[in-house]
Design goal:
This protein has 229 residues and is an alpha+beta fold. It folds into two domains: 118 residues, Diaminopimelate Epimerase, Chain A, domain 1 (Roll); 105 residues, Diaminopimelate Epimerase, Chain A, domain 1 (Roll). The protein is built from four helices and 14 strands. The chain is globular and about 50 Å long. The relative contact order is 0.21. This is PhzF family phenazine biosynthesis protein. It holds the Pfam family PhzC-PhzF. It comes from Streptomyces tamarix.
Length: 229
């Protein structure tokens, strides 16, 4: 089967580097069933792959290499940028997006994010020195091992250093940039954050009205092509 797809980097740093890789299949009809979508997401090996079922209405279907997700931050930000849409349709409901210069923003609710252990460390250096924990280690079993390690870099300015370990055992040992975890941390702290995650990705957040949190970052197009299988 020949499936055209794009690869994006979402939540890039100020220098345009880093960002979490995202696969986008613009024509979801090429992989119409859940099994074939899951197989492609596993083959591509990105933290998430998103299938676009309606490019005009922004109907999205998101997969990790091992599970289907009703919502994930960096796939929605990336798809909003690629499709140039202001509204996206996901199983959790409508997600509004806006484009502000170099940043693409979405409005999301923290309750859409899968549960994680948000573990605070004493310094950014401690976070950077962490080893990747084995799958399932670092969080209660109910949270599937998801660990979001964070520390203040500059608390007064809302600057955070973070790393994310999904613990799924599907080949993705560490997420370079995790929008859903940023939502949870923003809700916990109740303030806007400027998060540096992974090797140098940047995630911006801002609490809004009615429990909605804006989640934003830079997106780059890395390439596109067919996957024959």
């Amino acid at each position: 089967m020949n499936t055209a797809y794009d690869v994006l980097a979402v939540f890039c740093g100020p220098d345009g580097r880093h960002g979490n890789r995202l696969g986008v299949v613009r024509d979801g009809r090429a992989r119409p069933d859940e099994a074939s979508r899951q197989a492609l997401a596993k083959e591509l090996g990105h933290s998430e792959t998103v299938f676009v079922d309606d490019p005009e209405r922004g109907v999205l279907d998101v997969y990790t290499p091992s599970v289907r997700l009703p919502f994930a931050g960096h796939p929605v930000v990336g798809a909003a940028w690629l499709l140039d849409l202001e509204v996206l349709d996901l199983p959790v409901g409508e997600v509004w997006a806006r484009h502000d210069g170099e940043f693409t923003w979405i409005g999301a609710r923290p309750e859409w994010a899968p549960p994680r252990t948000l573990r605070q460390y004493g310094s950014a250096a401690e976070v950077e020195a962490l080893d990747v924990p084995p799958p399932g280690v670092g969080a209660p079993p109910a949270e599937r091992g998801r660990l979001y390690a964070w520390a203040w870099e500059e608390e007064a300015a809302g600057r955070v250093r973070a790393r994310a370990f999904p613990g799924r055992g599907d080949g993705v040992d560490e997420d370079e940039a995790t929008g859903a975890a940023a939502l949870l941390l923003t809700a916990l702290l109740g303030r806007a954050l400027n998060i540096t995650q992974g090797r140098g990705s940047q995630i911006m957040t801002a609490p809004g009205p009615d429990g909605v949190i804006e989640l934003g970052g830079r997106v780059r197009h890395l390439g596109s092509g067919p996957l024959t299988r």
